[in-house]
């Protein structure tokens, strides 16, 4: 059985009975004995089709249809007539009748006429639905790129006005507390917008529990709903001076984001129009959520920028302020070491010196990090003999390696070419990588340094048999202050800046730095450097 509802109107009980029997197998059927009863029924419930006799005492069939077409134009109408005169046919068509059947009719004639009209109606509705989706699709594209909320409101209201003409269309957007944050409306000149504004908070409260579109129209099809009983619907429509009102909620992920109120003074909205508003508001909801997200992001970004600036300033001031007392400390330590002959005291002094050096290294790291972040790092470029540099470095770290009985081997078969770069900074990077390799490799482990010329530069790699890095961490180790081990139970010294500085320096020099590693299997850090530092980064 199809779910369309048909109202049959005839003063002749037998005809009424025959029609009911024929059609109720396929549709939901109601009957009325005269025009006035039919109008009363039409005011209580909605129908898809009215099948009416023409000649009836009181309100005639054509007048009834006239009335229906005035108030509920979407209802299809078929008339039954005893005489098929041209005059009656013309009158019927003028009143908006979709088809008429001539009495006496064969059962099939009636069934086919009804089905034909309903099928046309189905197609018409589908057509409207599809047509209304097209502008929505186009509109969606511009809507989704709108991050300015008042512009969004304007766009939506004018799109709604284009597709669903109404006497009032208003859109309220709520803030996180559920209060109206912004609202805009388009209304005919004779509409008192203040009334709508006064009702808006009440409608928003209803929508906060209801979440789905509320259609208040004539007859009060909604029936007594929990959201708004018939009596209140009637009062609301009367107070607003409207024939029908649709309240469409913007239901976002986090609850109600707003409501759209659309109203007409003299007619109902068609089903296709209410669906259109539903889809439109659905799109607006996503766009509004995007815009709110964008605003939050922008705010968070601005806050971060301020924080970042403060951090850079702090590092700058702290590092410079630490340098002077450190210089005084190391200066007097130097003087003392010349005056002291006692071995124990000399031992104390060398501890003092070693830690002063560590502190100096930390200050240099902080400053380098700041210069890299602010783009103020300055390169001092000269011809660098990489082969010699690597040999020198191996000597420098040999003490550390020997302490842990780690063997370092070079696997450079061809002498490395000379390149033009910042020697000190490349040296700092290679020292960081080598120091890490020693630090994260257990006693008696091994480290290899290999290097080769590339067609556009050089590649140097440092491989160790150390603790390795898991796949989930490997991409993070170049971030500032990132350390695989949580700082509270760390077994290794350091502040997590070495690799991010190395990355910054190498990239400044026009090269790359990467790592291949497996947890428990050791790591291989690879840097590449071009023959010449790019002009853009030379200060
Ligand atoms: P730091 O060594 O001061 O902690 P780095 O920036 O040099 O900071 O390194 C960041 C982290 O990357 C280290 O804390 C460590 O967890 C990991 N890491 C660096 N080099 C190695 C390596 N050769 N083997 C294993 N883990 C390493």
Give every kind of bound small molecule, once each: adenosine-5'-diphosphate
The first-to-last residue Cα distance is 83 Å
Give the amount of beta strand, in percent: 15-25%
Largest sheet: 5 strands, parallel
- Give the total of beta strands: 17
Quaternary structure annotation: single chain
> Segments where pLDDT lies below 50 for 5+ residues?
none
Estimate the helix proportion, in percent: 40-55%
Structural class: alpha/beta
- What best-fitting shape do the alpha-carbon axes yield? elongated
Query: What do the pLDDT scores average to?
Result: 87
Radius of gyration: 42 Å
The largest beta-sheet arranges its strands as: 2-1-3-4-5
- The helix tally amounts to 14
Give the structure's gist in a few sentences.
The chain contains 14 helices and 17 strands. The protein is of the alpha/beta class. The strands form four sheets. The protein has a five-stranded parallel β-sheet with strand order 2-1-3-4-5, with helices on both faces.
Characterise this structure.
- The protein has 539 residues and is of the alpha/beta class.
- 51% of the residues lie in helices and 20% in strands.
- It contains 14 helices and 17 strands.
- The strands form four sheets. Strands 2-1-3-4-5 form a five-stranded parallel sheet, with helices on both faces. It has a five-stranded antiparallel sheet with strand order 7-6-10-9-8, with helices on both faces.
- Strand 16 (512-518) and strand 17 (522-530) form a beta hairpin.
- It is elongated and about 130 Å long.
- Bound molecules: adenosine-5'-diphosphate.
- The site of adenosine-5'-diphosphate (ADP) has 22 residues, from helix 12 and helix 14.
- The site of adenosine-5'-diphosphate has 22 residues, from helix 12 and helix 14.
């Amino acid at each position: 059985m199809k779910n369309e509802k048909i109202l049959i109107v005839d003063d002749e009980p037998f005809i009424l009975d025959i029609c009911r029997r024929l059609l109720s197998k396929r549709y939901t059927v109601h009957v009325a004995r005269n025009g006035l009863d039919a109008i009363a029924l039409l005011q209580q419930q909605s129908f898809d089709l009215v099948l009416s006799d023409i000649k009836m005492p009181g309100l005639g069939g054509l007048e009834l249809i006239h009335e229906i077409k005035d108030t509920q134009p979407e209802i299809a109408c078929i008339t039954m007539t005893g005489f098929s005169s041209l005059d009656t046919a013309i009158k019927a068509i003028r009143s908006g009748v979709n088809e008429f059947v001539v009495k006496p009719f064969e059962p099939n004639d009636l069934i086919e006429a009804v089905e034909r009209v309903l099928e046309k109606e189905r197609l018409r509705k589908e057509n409207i639905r599809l047509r209304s989706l097209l502008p929505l699709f186009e509109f969606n594209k511009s809507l989704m790129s709108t991050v300015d909320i008042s512009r969004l409101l304007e766009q939506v209201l004018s799109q709604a006005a284009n597709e669903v003409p109404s006497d009032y269309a208003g859109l309220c957007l709520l803030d996180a507390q559920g209060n109206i944050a912004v609202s805009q409306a388009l209304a005919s000149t004779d509409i008192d917008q203040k009334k709508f504004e006064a009702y808006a908070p009440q409608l928003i409260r209803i929508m906060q529990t209801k979440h789905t579109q509320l259609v208040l129209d004539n007859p009060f099809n909604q029936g007594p709903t929990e959201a708004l009983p018939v009596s209140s619907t009637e009062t609301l429509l009367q107070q607003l001076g409207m024939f029908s009102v649709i309240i469409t909620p913007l239901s976002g992920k986090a609850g109600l984001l707003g409501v759209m109120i659309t109203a007409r003074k003299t007619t109902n909205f068609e089903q296709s129009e209410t669906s259109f508003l539903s889809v439109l508001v659905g799109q607006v909801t996503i766009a509004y959520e995007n815009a709110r997200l964008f605003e939050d992001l922008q705010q968070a970004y601005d806050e971060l920028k301020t924080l970042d600036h403060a951090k850079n300033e702090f590092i700058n001031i702290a590092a410079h302020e630490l340098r002077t007392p450190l210089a005084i400390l190391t200066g007097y330590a130097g003087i003392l070491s010349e005056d002291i002959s006692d071995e124990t005291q000399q031992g104390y002094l060398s501890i003092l010196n070693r830690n002063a050096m560590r502190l100096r290294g930390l200050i240099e790291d902080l400053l380098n990090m700041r210069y890299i972040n602010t783009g103020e790092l300055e390169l001092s470029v000269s011809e660098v003999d990489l082969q010699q540099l690597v040999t020198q470095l191996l000597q420098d770290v040999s003490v550390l390696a020997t302490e842990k009985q780690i063997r370092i081997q070079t696997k450079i078969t061809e002498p490395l070419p000379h390149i033009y770069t910042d020697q000190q900074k490349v040296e700092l990077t290679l020292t960081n990588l080598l120091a890490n390799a020693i630090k994260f490799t257990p006693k008696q482990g091994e480290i290899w340094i290999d290097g080769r010329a590339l067609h556009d530069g050089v590649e140097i790699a440092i491989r160790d048999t150390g603790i390795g890095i898991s796949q989930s961490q490997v991409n993070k180790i170049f971030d500032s202050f990132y350390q695989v081990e949580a700082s509270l139970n760390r077994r290794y010294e350091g502040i997590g800046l070495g690799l991010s500085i190395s990355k910054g320096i190498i990239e400044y020099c026009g090269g790359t730095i990467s790592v291949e590693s497996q947890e428990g299997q050791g790591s291989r850090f690879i840097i590449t450097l071009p023959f010449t530092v790019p002009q853009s980064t030379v200060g």
